[in-house]
Each structure stands twice: as structure tokens, then as C-alpha cells.
Amino acid sequence: MSESKNPFPLPSEIESVPGAENWGDMYAYYTRVQPEDDDRFWFYNSMHFSEPMSAFDMITAEAAYYAMGAYVTRVFAFPTAMGIDYRCINGRIYITANTVQDPEEIEKRLAIFQERAGHYYENWNDIYGQWEKRMGDLIKEMTAIKIPELPNIEDEAVVKEARGIAQNHYVRQAYNEVIEKYQIMWQHHFEMLMLGYGAYVVFFQFCKQAFPEITDQTVARMVAGIDVLMFRPDDELKKLAKLAVELGIDDAFTDDGNPDVILAAVEAKGDAGKQWMDALAESRDPWFNISIGDGFYHFERSWNDDLSVPLSALPHYIGLIKKGENLERPTEELKAERERIISEYRELLGTDEEKAAFDQMLAVSHLVFPYVEDHKFYCEHWLTTCFFNKIREFGQLLARHDMLDDAEDIFHLHHTEVDLTLGNLMNAWAAGSKPVNQDYWKPIVKERRRMIEVLKEWQAPPAIGPMPENIEDPALQMLWGITTETLHTWAAPDIEDDSQLKGYAASPGIVEGTAKVLRSINDFGEISEGDILVAPVTHPSWSPLFSKISAAVSDIGGTMSHMAIVAREYGMPAVVGTGQATKRIQNGQKLRVDGDRGVVTILE
Amino acid sequence: MTSDSFILPFGTISLDDRPRVGGKGGSLGELTSALIPVPPGFVVTTDAFSAFLDALDKEHGIRNQIAKLDPEDVATLNQTTSDIRTLVQQAPTPKEIASVIAEAYSKLGDNIPVAVRSSATSEDSEEASFAGLQDTYLWQKGEAQLMEALKLCWASLYNAESVAYRLKLDIPEYQLAMAVVIQTMVNSRCSGVMFTRSPTTGDKSVIAIEGSWGLGSSIVSGEVTPDKFVINKITSEITSRDVASKDIEHVPDEKGGIMEMPVDETRKKTQCVSDDELKELSSIARRIEKLYGMPQDIEWAIDQEGKVMVLQSRPETVWAAKEKAPVAKPTAKAFDHIFNVLGGQK
């Protein structure tokens, strides 16, 4: 393809968003676009980083990519692929994958890969058992980290026990520990993940060759687990709704989801109320440690942080239970259906050899998939929401010492800037003076907050740089999560007119209805029965919504995304990854969602 | 040869009867026996054709005339075959044949419109020597029209290309036989074809359905762009839906035959077959495929009352002829597949 035909802009051609020209000051120098970046193809990782990065949240991209790259490039030595380079443009993360081209080098890496990956596949369940223990310990350690108070006069024990270390030292130590454990989480996260994806990609490719018209969703259905942790928080909520009805205290649950009001009303119900509160406490630990997002941003709090999210879902569940509906997921039926699909596809294969290969590949996918599905709960949800809360405590510390206006402001400092600022505080506490240039960050934070708002409006191009002809290497598809097909869709959007949006057909069926644009799960109450949900992306904590809506549309997501999976379970049409549904669709508009073709039509 | 062997109703035919009823006739009989909804009908067997031809041959020596032809002498070939076709078309049908056909026809209904289709017998002939001879005469109403169409089918055996082909391959004329299927017409609201594997990719896990308003002849002749659907056999999901602008439809002509009618604006762009009907069609398609144990190419119709029917079914031939190498073979250890795919070796 000649360069003049390249449908995407070059990295160097992208200008700063007017009004946010200084966005680059928020991030490390090595995240900027370099002149030679114009020779490479990059795409916007909207799947993981759908919003402009605040200065602190950039640590998620940093830690994730250096952990992922380490395992792909150095630890397991994937033969054809190395890690990911990332750049920040207007606050968005663009990525590209490095490849190995030299056949001799590939050969060498393959020998190492076979040996090392083989060890993991061979001992997968043992290693996963160890992993769960290690991750559980890490979460406990993170939770236990104490952020020092910096008292006016040191605790007597420091003297009586002759500890020899004053509190200000622990400020930086605790901070380092919090950062370190977060980064270790990402190391663990990728320890097994790329091998898991590898197994899935192989089965996926086999299915696509044997059944060229099989949908991604159908392959996913053959592999996906039924008892996955992702469903658990929602299941807990359904259990709590049922218990409330059984105990006859369901009138305590009002629509507004205000925890103070609701929990006070429950507690006023005597023994029944106490019984329900005990059940709630049990569900909360650990199942409410679920992020309202994907766990990549500080503002995605957990259900435990904001009980109004789960509580506002309860009245609807209570209503359904009182109507006599059974809300429990029919896990046995789902399992039987999965088995039927597998065996019927297997039967269609031409030869016994193919059937045997299919069995092997599927078995490896089933072996690795519990990890692929469940690691998120431990990593991105539980540990990450805990991590951001620890950082919040440092924010409170800095706010108490009037170095920030508000604890949340800390998320507009880069993590190295936080480190410096804590140094200033440690010194001030010791010196008995005010922190030097105490107000230093206040105008900067204000400016950064303003810039983030400006950057949110930017329509980030899905890809930049010279478009590759195709992405045939399955390792590359695995790292990028995109295929040649995706590229072509981006390059020439197949839109018939202004009233249509194209995305991935994630769950079949056609439905017409009223659009409800929801940017946050906190607005749960605004959804009416039968609405079509239009959201940037949905996450496990959004699951309760699906019992109310008739169809779902997202800006971001593929066929393995949360919205796709849940919509299929509920049997409603869904179109995901439209790129701009929340921007182009207005509340109250009539929509047609065609989940067979992946098209959303704005009817009026 | 007795007169009761001249016709066979669908319900009495099995695939074993193919030498006498042809491929199409055998298939319709088999489907009827398997309780697949097929419009009723009967086959005018090869016995009837032989009896008719024997009588004609005695008088005109047709078989001899052909044996003497030189396939390279196109002018003589054209003239002789044209004369023979006229002779076949104009010759009276022997009474013993005409009367059993008339009786079987009247059992279908009172002056009921029928389709008259040639049904070739020899297996290798279906695709080769009879190419272009799959004559079909739709909406033939009344005994006279039926008999005329029957003889047009018979006469088509003496088409110049077909005769030249037989001469070149030394196929003796006395082996020549043809059965003709007489089948009740469906005044279809919509109709079309379906394949139990994808015609574009050969995928066996899907059923591709094409449909348009009115009679199926508009699709077969390519005069209309049909609605196209792909249905997953296993999950029953409609995975692709392409509703085309169907500008014309074929409808039965009062005088017999069919005529082309414009379709009004709203109907043009309306999906001609409902999702429920698509599911019913795909379930029928799967039954037929199971019955034959191989992928099928099926013509279907839905009548004005919404009844789904199969007009004919034959084995899919395009993809069946392309044998694919297995996608993968088993490996020593299951995870070796991963090394094979991610190893960068093509």
C-alpha cells in the first residue's frame, strides 16, 4: 500500500488539543512521541484506557506494560513477539508491539519458549494454586500497609523500645511499599496471562479455519467458564434481595440507593434487620471489592467504597423476586448447553484427526481459562481498588498539611511527583517548619484538572502511522487484541449514513427502543424498564442493570467484553465497540439495535 | 412393461427407484417418505418414456437417424435434432400412458397447476451430458398443458448439444431414458433456496438461506437480488442478515405459466421471510441433511397461509468436490499446538 493511501494520520501529525497544549507536562518524558515513531503503526488502546490519563493513573500503563513485556520478551521468550511500546498523545495511550523477524532468532526463542511455557502448561493448576496464594498474600499485605500519622510529638514507644526510626521515615517507606506492591500485582498478572491467551488464540484460530463463518462469540462460548468470579458480586446481590424478601424487610430498600438511609432503615428492623446486615457483611468481604470500572483509573471505586451502587440495584431485584421470578443463574443448563455446542461442532469436523486435535486444543483452553477469567477479580478489582485507596490516604495526609486542597488532588500528580512532595513534607515535619512552597501544587492541579476535561472531548483516531497490510501473526493478534479485519473497519468505516453506527455484533437479535445514555453506574436509577443502554463500556458491577434493559450498546469492547457476555446470557441484542455511541446518541432517542449485523440505527 | 409402471406417486418412491424416476424424482419420494413437507405429485417414469419412444421409433427410426449423425457436421446435426424434437412434441401420446397420467393428475386436484420437470437418471449424467437440460415448466394447468410440457421435457433429450455429447462419448441411444416429475405448484408468498453449508466458504456449521417474494423462478433465473441470511446450525442464531431491494416478483399467470410483476416500494425492502420461518427452514434443512448424510442444496417455498415446503433437494456439489487438508492433526502433547501456532513457522 502506498503511503499516500494510508488512512491514518502519522504520530507527528497529531496536534495538541486546543486549550490543553501543556498536557505533556503531566507525564514522564519517555511517554512522548518521537520522530522515528512515524515509521511504526500504533493504535489507541481504548479497550483499557478509554479516558485521558490523569498524571497519577499513568502508573497503570507503566506497570502493566513493563510487566507484560518482561514475560513475553524475557521470561518466556515468545518466538515471534516481544513486548509493547506505548506513547501518550493528548492523554491517550497508543501502543505498538515489537516483533522478532530474524528466523534464526525465532528458532532460538522457540526452543526456550517450548521449554519454559511447557513447564507452565504442564503444571498449570499447581502453579495457579500457588498464584492464588501469592496474590491473596499480596492483597493482605497491601491492605495492612499503614500510612503514618506524623504526630506532633513522636509516640513514646519509639523511645521506650529504642526503635531508632522516626515516623517521617515511614511516610516514604509506606509509599514505596504501596507502589511496589501494585507493580508486583502487574507482574503476577502477566505471569500466566499471555500463556492463557496463547492457548485461547490457538483454539480460536483452529475454529476459524475449520468453520470460517463461526462468530467470535460462539468460540468464546465453547471456552468460557460458567462459574466465574465475575458473576459472583451480582449473584451475591440477588441473594441479598431474596433474603430481604424472605425476612419481610424489603420496604427498607428505596430507589435512591442512599446507604445512610437504607442501612438505618434495615437496622431499625430488629432481628431481621441484623440478620440481613450480617449477610451483607459476609457478601462484602470479598465480593464487593469489585470496581465499578475495569480497575484502571483512580475514580473507579469499588462497591465497598460506594455502597450506593449495589444498593440502588436491590429494589429492582426485590421487585422481580416478589413477582415470583427466579434470579439464580441456571448454571447447570448453561453448562449442558455449552457441552451441546461443543459436541455438535466436533461432529461437523471432517476427520478423526481433526476431532482429536480439536479435543486437545479445547482441553488446553479449558485448563487455562479459569485463570484468564478470574485473575481480574484479584488484580484489577480487589488489589487495585485497595491500591488507589492507599494513595487516597496519602492524599489525605498531604491535604491535612495543606499541600493539596483536596485528598483526590493527589491523582493529578505523577507518582514520582508524589514521592518528591512526600519528601518535602517529611523534611518540614522534621524541621518544624511549613513545607517549602506549600502551595506549589495547587494551581498546577487546578490546571491539570481543567486540561483533563478538555482532553475528554478529543476524538482520538483509532490508529496512527502506516497501516500494515495484515496482522497474520497470531502472537501479534494476541498482544494487540486486533485483527486485520479490525484494521479495515477502522480504515473505511462501513457507515451507510449519519444515522447509523457500526460495531461488533456481540449478541444477536433486533430490538427497537428508547436510548438511555449512562456514563457511570452511579446513574443506575435513571434507567427505566425496557430502555436501551448506551454506555462507554460496562463492567461486572454493571451486571444488575441487564435485568432492566432491552438491548445494550457500547463505545468500547470486543466480543469477549463484559457487555457481550452478559447480553448473551440475558438473550438481548448488543452492539459493542461502536467507538462513539455515547457521543452521537442522545438520551430519549429512538434506536434500532441490530445485534446480528452489529449496527445501531438512530430512528429519530 | 405394464401401464401401472408408467407413473409412481411420491409416497411410493424411495431412493432405490432412481433408475426409473431419476434423481429429482427419487429425492422427492425420499423426502415425502421422511415426512418432510413436500407439495404432492408423481413421477412419469422412464418406462413411460421408453414406451412412447418405442412406438415412435418403429415408425420413424429415430435411434438410427441419430446413430448415423456426425457430431462435427453441425448443420446436419442441428437440422436432424430439430426435426426429431418437432416429431416428439407433435406425436400423440399412447393411450395407455395418457390415461394413467390423466388419472394421477386428477388425484392431485381439480385442474390444479403443476410444475413439470425433467429428472435425469444416470448418475454421472446429472452434471455433464444433461447440462442445460434440466427443463422446468411451471404453472401448467389442465391435462393439455401438462402433456405438452411433458413432451417438451422428453424432446429436450434431442437438443443438439446433448446429442453431440452422446455421440462423442459413444453413449448408445437405447440406454437413453428420462423421468419427468409432476408436482403441485405452491402459490408462494415467498420462496428461495438454501444450502446446508456456506456457498461462499464451505462452512458446514451454517445454513445459508436466500429468499424473495413470489415464486422461486425469479431467484433461480437471477432476475432479483434476494434477501440473504446465514443461520448457525448449532446455536440457531441468525448470524448474518442482508435484506435486499427485491424489485420484481414472479406470480402465476391466469393463462398458465408465470409473469413478472413489480413489487411496491415498502415490500421491496421488507424482509420476505420472518425470523421464525427462517428457524423452521433451517430445522427442515438439517433434517434433510441428516437424511442424506451430506450437505444439501434445497429449493423451498412458503405458501400464502404460511406453510413451509420443500420443492426439491440435491447434494451440494461445489464444496464436496474440494477436499480440504485437515486443519490440524493431533500432537504428542496437547499444548504442542500452541508451539506450532506461535512458533512462527509457516
Q: Describe it for me?
A:
- The complex is a heterodimer of chains A (604) and B (346).
- With 604 residues, chain A is an alpha+beta fold.
- Chain A is built from 18 helices and 12 strands.
- Chain A has 4 domains: 3-114 and 456-485, no CATH class; 138-224 and 355-431; 229-328, no CATH class; 494-602, Phosphohistidine domain (Glucose Oxidase, domain 1, 3-Layer(bba) Sandwich).
- Chain A has helices spanning 58-75, 103-122, 124-144, 156-160, 167-210, 216-223, 232-246, 259-267, 270-287, 308-322, 331-348, 352-400, 415-431, 441-456, 474-480, 484-491, 562-570, 581-584, and strands at 42-44, 81-89, 92-99, 463-464, 500-502, 504-507, 510-517, 532-535, 551-554, 574-576, 590-594, 599-602.
- In chain A, helix 7 packs antiparallel against helix 9 (270-287).
- Chain A is globular, with a radius of gyration of 25 Å.
- The model of chain A has no long low-confidence stretch (mean pLDDT 91).
- Chain B is α+β, with helices and mostly antiparallel strands and 346 residues long.
- In chain B, a hairpin with a 4-residue loop joins strand 12 and strand 13 (308-315).
- Mean pLDDT of chain B is 88; it is low at 123-132.
- The chains are: A alpha+beta (604), B alpha+beta (346).
- The interface between A and B is large, with 53 and 36 residues.
Shape of chain A: globular
Low-pLDDT parts of chain A are none
Global Rg of chain B: 23 Å
Number of domains of chain B: 2
What's a quick, concise take on this entry?
The complex is a heterodimer of chains A (604) and B (346). With 604 residues, chain A is α+β, with helices and mostly antiparallel strands.
What's the layout of helices and strands?
The complex is a heterodimer of chains A (604) and B (346).
Chain A: E1 42-44, H1 58-75, E2 81-89, E3 92-99, H2 103-122, H3 124-144, H4 156-160, H5 167-210, H6 216-223, H7 232-246, H8 259-267, H9 270-287, H10 308-322, H11 331-348, H12 352-400, H13 415-431, H14 441-456, E4 463-464, H15 474-480, H16 484-491, E5 500-502, E6 504-507, E7 510-517, E8 532-535, E9 551-554, H17 562-570, E10 574-576, H18 581-584, E11 590-594, E12 599-602
Chain B: E1 7-9, H1 18-33, E2 41-44, H2 46-60, H3 62-67, H4 74-90, H5 95-108, E3 114-120, E4 136-140, H6 142-155, H7 160-168, E5 178-184, E6 188-195, E7 206-213, H8 217-220, E8 227-232, E9 238-242, E10 248-252, E11 258-262, H9 265-268, H10 275-292, E12 296-303, E13 308-315, H11 336-342
Antiparallel strand pairs in B: 1-2, 2-5, 3-4, 3-5, 6-7, 6-12, 7-8, 8-9, 10-11, 12-13
Helix pairs in contact in B: 4-6
